Protein backbone atom coordinates (compact mmCIF):
# COMPACT_ATOMS: atom_id res chain seq x y z
CA UNK A 1 0.00 0.00 0.00
CA UNK A 2 2.84 2.40 0.86
CA UNK A 3 4.49 1.67 -2.48
CA UNK A 4 1.21 2.27 -4.32
CA UNK A 5 0.72 5.63 -2.57
CA UNK A 6 4.27 6.62 -3.45
CA UNK A 7 3.67 5.70 -7.09
CA UNK A 8 0.55 7.88 -7.25
CA UNK A 9 2.40 10.78 -5.63
CA UNK A 10 5.39 10.57 -7.96
CA UNK A 11 3.54 9.88 -11.19
CA UNK A 12 0.36 11.94 -10.80
CA UNK A 13 -0.29 14.07 -7.72
CA UNK A 14 3.22 15.43 -7.22
CA UNK A 15 3.73 17.03 -10.65
CA UNK A 16 0.07 18.06 -10.77
CA UNK A 17 0.22 19.94 -7.45
CA UNK A 18 3.59 21.45 -8.28
CA UNK A 19 2.24 22.58 -11.63
CA UNK A 20 -0.83 24.17 -10.03
CA UNK A 21 1.43 26.12 -7.68
CA UNK A 22 3.38 27.34 -10.71
CA UNK A 23 0.18 28.33 -12.51
CA UNK A 24 -0.88 30.41 -9.52
CA UNK A 25 2.54 32.08 -9.41
CA UNK A 26 2.40 32.85 -13.15
CA UNK A 27 -1.12 34.27 -12.80
CA UNK A 28 0.08 36.81 -10.23
CA UNK A 29 3.03 38.01 -12.33
CA UNK A 30 2.94 40.93 -14.72
CA UNK A 31 2.60 39.72 -18.33
CA UNK A 32 5.61 40.07 -20.62
CA UNK A 33 6.00 39.80 -24.35
CA UNK A 34 6.52 36.23 -25.52
CA UNK A 35 9.71 35.31 -27.29
CA UNK A 36 9.44 33.59 -30.70
CA UNK A 37 9.04 29.82 -30.49
CA UNK A 38 12.40 28.14 -31.15
CA UNK A 39 11.60 25.14 -33.32
CA UNK A 40 15.27 24.53 -34.08
CA UNK A 41 15.87 24.00 -30.37
CA UNK A 42 12.94 21.56 -30.25
CA UNK A 43 14.23 19.56 -33.23
CA UNK A 44 17.87 19.44 -32.11
CA UNK A 45 16.90 18.55 -28.55
CA UNK A 46 14.65 15.74 -29.82
CA UNK A 47 17.46 14.28 -31.95
CA UNK A 48 19.95 14.52 -29.09
CA UNK A 49 17.44 12.88 -26.75
CA UNK A 50 17.07 10.05 -29.26
CA UNK A 51 20.84 9.61 -29.39
CA UNK A 52 21.22 9.75 -25.62
CA UNK A 53 18.42 7.27 -24.93
CA UNK A 54 19.81 4.69 -27.33
CA UNK A 55 23.41 5.14 -26.25
CA UNK A 56 22.47 4.76 -22.58
CA UNK A 57 20.40 1.70 -23.39
CA UNK A 58 23.38 0.25 -25.26
CA UNK A 59 25.58 0.95 -22.23
CA UNK A 60 23.08 -0.94 -20.10
CA UNK A 61 23.05 -3.98 -22.36
CA UNK A 62 26.82 -3.91 -22.86
CA UNK A 63 27.44 -4.00 -19.12
CA UNK A 64 24.93 -6.80 -18.75
CA UNK A 65 27.00 -8.76 -21.25
CA UNK A 66 30.59 -7.96 -20.20
CA UNK A 67 30.49 -9.48 -16.70
CA UNK A 68 28.91 -12.63 -18.13
CA UNK A 69 31.55 -12.79 -20.86
CA UNK A 70 34.22 -12.89 -18.15
CA UNK A 71 32.42 -15.62 -16.19
CA UNK A 72 33.32 -19.24 -16.95
CA UNK A 73 30.41 -21.21 -18.35
CA UNK A 74 28.44 -18.23 -19.68
CA UNK A 75 28.29 -17.36 -23.38
CA UNK A 76 26.47 -14.03 -23.87
CA UNK A 77 25.35 -12.37 -27.10
CA UNK A 78 24.67 -8.64 -27.44
CA UNK A 79 21.85 -7.27 -29.61
CA UNK A 80 20.70 -3.75 -30.41
CA UNK A 81 17.89 -3.87 -27.86
CA UNK A 82 18.59 -6.90 -25.69
CA UNK A 83 21.06 -9.62 -24.79
CA UNK A 84 20.94 -13.33 -24.08
CA UNK A 85 23.29 -15.94 -22.76
CA UNK A 86 23.82 -19.67 -22.79
CA UNK A 87 25.17 -21.75 -19.96
CA UNK A 88 24.71 -21.53 -16.21
CA UNK A 89 26.52 -19.87 -13.37
CA UNK A 90 25.38 -18.72 -9.94
CA UNK A 91 26.56 -15.16 -10.65
CA UNK A 92 24.40 -14.74 -13.75
CA UNK A 93 21.47 -13.42 -11.70
CA UNK A 94 23.67 -10.92 -9.87
CA UNK A 95 25.05 -9.65 -13.17
CA UNK A 96 21.50 -8.76 -14.25
CA UNK A 97 21.90 -5.70 -12.03
CA UNK A 98 25.13 -4.43 -13.55
CA UNK A 99 23.38 -2.76 -16.48
CA UNK A 100 21.35 -0.39 -14.29
CA UNK A 101 24.46 0.37 -12.24
CA UNK A 102 26.38 1.21 -15.42
CA UNK A 103 23.70 3.63 -16.64
CA UNK A 104 23.72 5.45 -13.29
CA UNK A 105 27.49 5.84 -13.42
CA UNK A 106 27.35 6.97 -17.07
CA UNK A 107 24.67 9.53 -16.25
CA UNK A 108 26.58 10.90 -13.26
CA UNK A 109 29.76 11.14 -15.33
CA UNK A 110 28.02 13.13 -18.06
CA UNK A 111 26.46 15.51 -15.53
CA UNK A 112 29.86 15.98 -13.86
CA UNK A 113 31.37 16.85 -17.24
CA UNK A 114 28.55 19.30 -17.89
CA UNK A 115 29.07 20.97 -14.54
CA UNK A 116 32.85 21.18 -14.51
CA UNK A 117 33.72 21.74 -18.15
CA UNK A 118 33.50 25.22 -19.65
CA UNK A 119 31.36 24.23 -22.61
CA UNK A 120 30.28 26.80 -25.15
CA UNK A 121 28.62 24.42 -27.61
CA UNK A 122 24.86 24.39 -27.07
CA UNK A 123 24.59 20.98 -28.69
CA UNK A 124 27.26 19.42 -26.47
CA UNK A 125 25.58 20.81 -23.37
CA UNK A 126 22.20 19.49 -24.49
CA UNK A 127 23.69 16.10 -25.30
CA UNK A 128 25.36 15.77 -21.88
CA UNK A 129 22.12 16.84 -20.21
CA UNK A 130 20.15 14.16 -22.03
CA UNK A 131 22.82 11.54 -21.31
CA UNK A 132 22.61 12.36 -17.61
CA UNK A 133 18.81 12.42 -17.73
CA UNK A 134 18.54 9.05 -19.48
CA UNK A 135 21.31 7.46 -17.46
CA UNK A 136 19.58 8.14 -14.15
CA UNK A 137 15.95 7.90 -15.19
CA UNK A 138 16.51 4.66 -17.08
CA UNK A 139 17.97 2.99 -13.98
CA UNK A 140 15.73 4.31 -11.19
CA UNK A 141 12.42 2.82 -12.44
CA UNK A 142 14.16 -0.56 -12.61
CA UNK A 143 14.61 -0.42 -8.85
CA UNK A 144 10.84 -0.07 -8.50
CA UNK A 145 10.08 -2.81 -11.03
CA UNK A 146 12.65 -5.10 -9.42
CA UNK A 147 10.89 -4.83 -6.06
CA UNK A 148 7.66 -6.26 -7.50
CA UNK A 149 8.94 -8.48 -10.34
CA UNK A 150 11.46 -11.19 -9.54
CA UNK A 151 11.84 -11.90 -13.25
CA UNK A 152 13.10 -8.40 -14.12
CA UNK A 153 16.82 -7.65 -14.41
CA UNK A 154 17.14 -5.83 -11.09
CA UNK A 155 14.65 -8.20 -9.49
CA UNK A 156 16.95 -11.13 -10.27
CA UNK A 157 19.89 -9.28 -8.72
CA UNK A 158 17.80 -8.49 -5.63
CA UNK A 159 16.92 -12.16 -5.22
CA UNK A 160 20.57 -13.17 -5.60
CA UNK A 161 21.40 -10.77 -2.76
CA UNK A 162 18.57 -12.32 -0.69
CA UNK A 163 16.89 -8.98 -0.06
CA UNK A 164 13.82 -9.21 2.10
CA UNK A 165 10.46 -7.86 0.97
CA UNK A 166 10.95 -4.88 3.27
CA UNK A 167 14.41 -4.20 1.82
CA UNK A 168 13.05 -4.39 -1.72
CA UNK A 169 10.29 -1.93 -0.87
CA UNK A 170 12.82 0.40 0.72
CA UNK A 171 14.89 0.36 -2.48
CA UNK A 172 11.75 0.97 -4.53
CA UNK A 173 10.73 3.94 -2.36
CA UNK A 174 14.24 5.36 -2.53
CA UNK A 175 14.18 5.11 -6.33
CA UNK A 176 10.72 6.69 -6.51
CA UNK A 177 11.77 9.64 -4.37
CA UNK A 178 14.96 10.05 -6.40
CA UNK A 179 13.16 10.40 -9.75
CA UNK A 180 11.55 13.82 -9.14
CA UNK A 181 14.68 14.99 -7.31
CA UNK A 182 16.80 14.17 -10.37
CA UNK A 183 14.35 15.91 -12.70
CA UNK A 184 14.18 19.05 -10.57
CA UNK A 185 17.97 19.12 -10.15
CA UNK A 186 18.33 19.25 -13.95
CA UNK A 187 16.09 22.30 -14.28
CA UNK A 188 18.81 24.85 -13.66
CA UNK A 189 21.18 23.58 -16.40
CA UNK A 190 18.21 23.36 -18.77
CA UNK A 191 17.11 26.94 -18.09
CA UNK A 192 20.71 28.13 -18.46
CA UNK A 193 20.51 27.01 -22.10
CA UNK A 194 18.33 30.06 -22.76
CA UNK A 195 19.93 32.66 -24.99
CA UNK A 196 18.16 35.64 -23.44
CA UNK A 197 17.03 36.63 -19.95
CA UNK A 198 13.57 37.23 -21.41
CA UNK A 199 13.29 33.49 -22.17
CA UNK A 200 13.22 32.68 -18.46
CA UNK A 201 12.23 35.98 -16.86
CA UNK A 202 8.90 34.82 -15.43
CA UNK A 203 7.31 31.60 -14.22
CA UNK A 204 5.30 31.34 -17.44
CA UNK A 205 8.38 32.00 -19.58
CA UNK A 206 10.40 29.35 -17.74
CA UNK A 207 7.64 26.80 -18.18
CA UNK A 208 7.37 27.65 -21.86
CA UNK A 209 11.14 27.27 -22.31
CA UNK A 210 11.17 23.87 -20.59
CA UNK A 211 8.32 22.73 -22.84
CA UNK A 212 10.50 23.67 -25.84
CA UNK A 213 13.75 22.22 -24.53
CA UNK A 214 12.42 19.14 -22.73
CA UNK A 215 8.77 18.13 -23.07
CA UNK A 216 8.29 18.43 -26.83
CA UNK A 217 11.70 16.82 -27.53
CA UNK A 218 10.71 13.90 -25.28
CA UNK A 219 7.42 13.52 -27.18
CA UNK A 220 9.17 13.56 -30.54
CA UNK A 221 12.21 11.62 -29.33
CA UNK A 222 10.10 8.80 -27.87
CA UNK A 223 8.59 8.25 -31.31
CA UNK A 224 12.05 8.42 -32.92
CA UNK A 225 13.41 5.82 -30.49
CA UNK A 226 10.99 3.13 -31.71
CA UNK A 227 12.86 2.30 -34.99
CA UNK A 228 16.00 1.69 -32.93
CA UNK A 229 14.20 -0.90 -30.78
CA UNK A 230 12.22 -2.97 -33.26
CA UNK A 231 11.81 -5.85 -33.63
CA UNK A 232 10.76 -6.77 -30.11
CA UNK A 233 7.57 -7.12 -28.09
CA UNK A 234 5.40 -3.99 -28.31
CA UNK A 235 5.53 -3.55 -24.53
CA UNK A 236 9.34 -3.51 -24.56
CA UNK A 237 9.50 -1.25 -27.61
CA UNK A 238 7.20 1.44 -26.22
CA UNK A 239 6.90 1.06 -22.44
CA UNK A 240 10.51 1.77 -21.44
CA UNK A 241 10.91 4.91 -23.62
CA UNK A 242 7.62 6.27 -22.24
CA UNK A 243 8.64 5.65 -18.62
CA UNK A 244 12.14 7.08 -19.06
CA UNK A 245 10.95 10.15 -20.94
CA UNK A 246 7.76 11.31 -19.35
CA UNK A 247 8.26 10.98 -15.60
CA UNK A 248 11.20 13.38 -15.61
CA UNK A 249 9.73 15.68 -18.26
CA UNK A 250 6.45 16.05 -16.34
CA UNK A 251 8.28 17.07 -13.16
CA UNK A 252 10.52 19.50 -15.04
CA UNK A 253 7.60 21.28 -16.69
CA UNK A 254 5.69 21.34 -13.40
CA UNK A 255 8.66 22.74 -11.48
CA UNK A 256 10.13 25.15 -14.02
CA UNK A 257 8.54 28.16 -12.28
CA UNK A 258 10.42 27.46 -9.05
CA UNK A 259 13.97 28.12 -10.35
CA UNK A 260 14.15 31.90 -10.42
CA UNK A 261 17.89 32.59 -10.37
CA UNK A 262 19.10 30.69 -13.46
CA UNK A 263 21.37 32.76 -15.69
CA UNK A 264 20.99 32.37 -19.46
CA UNK A 265 24.24 31.33 -21.13
CA UNK A 266 23.09 29.48 -24.22
CA UNK A 267 23.94 30.16 -27.83
CA UNK A 268 21.73 30.05 -30.90
CA UNK A 269 21.57 26.66 -32.63
CA UNK A 270 21.93 27.23 -36.35
CA UNK A 271 21.78 23.68 -37.74
CA UNK A 272 20.47 20.23 -36.89
CA UNK A 273 22.55 18.47 -39.57
CA UNK A 274 25.12 16.95 -37.21
CA UNK A 275 22.59 15.52 -34.70
CA UNK A 276 20.51 14.17 -37.58
CA UNK A 277 23.50 12.47 -39.21
CA UNK A 278 24.58 11.05 -35.86
CA UNK A 279 21.10 9.62 -35.24
CA UNK A 280 20.99 8.04 -38.71
CA UNK A 281 24.47 6.55 -38.25
CA UNK A 282 23.52 5.06 -34.87
CA UNK A 283 20.31 3.62 -36.32
CA UNK A 284 22.33 1.90 -39.07
CA UNK A 285 24.76 0.49 -36.51
CA UNK A 286 21.89 -0.82 -34.39
CA UNK A 287 19.93 -2.40 -37.23
CA UNK A 288 22.74 -3.61 -39.51
CA UNK A 289 25.51 -4.59 -37.08
CA UNK A 290 23.94 -5.22 -33.68
CA UNK A 291 20.56 -6.61 -34.66
CA UNK A 292 22.02 -9.95 -35.87
CA UNK A 293 23.87 -10.24 -32.55
CA UNK A 294 27.50 -9.95 -31.48
CA UNK A 295 28.83 -12.99 -29.62
CA UNK A 296 31.07 -12.29 -26.61
CA UNK A 297 32.63 -15.75 -26.44
Automatic annotation (TrEMBL):
What high-level taxonomic lineage is stated for the organism? Bacteria, Pseudomonadati, Pseudomonadota, Gammaproteobacteria, Lysobacterales
Origin organism is Lysobacter panacisoli
Q: Keywords assigned by UniProt?
A: Membrane, Transmembrane, Transmembrane helix
Positions of transmembrane segments: 6-24, 36-59, 94-114, 126-150, 170-188, 209-226, 238-259, 271-290
Indicate whether Iron appears among the record's keywords. Answer: no
State the name under which the record lists this protein.
Answer: Uncharacterized protein
Amino acid sequence: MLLLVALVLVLILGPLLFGVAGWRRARDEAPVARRPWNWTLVAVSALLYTLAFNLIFFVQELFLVLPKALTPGLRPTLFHNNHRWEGQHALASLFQGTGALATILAGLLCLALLRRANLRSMQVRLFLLWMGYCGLLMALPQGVIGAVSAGSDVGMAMDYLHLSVAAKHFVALLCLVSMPLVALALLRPVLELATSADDIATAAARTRFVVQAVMLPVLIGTALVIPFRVPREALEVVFLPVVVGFIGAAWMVAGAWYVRDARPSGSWIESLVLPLLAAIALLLVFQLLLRPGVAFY
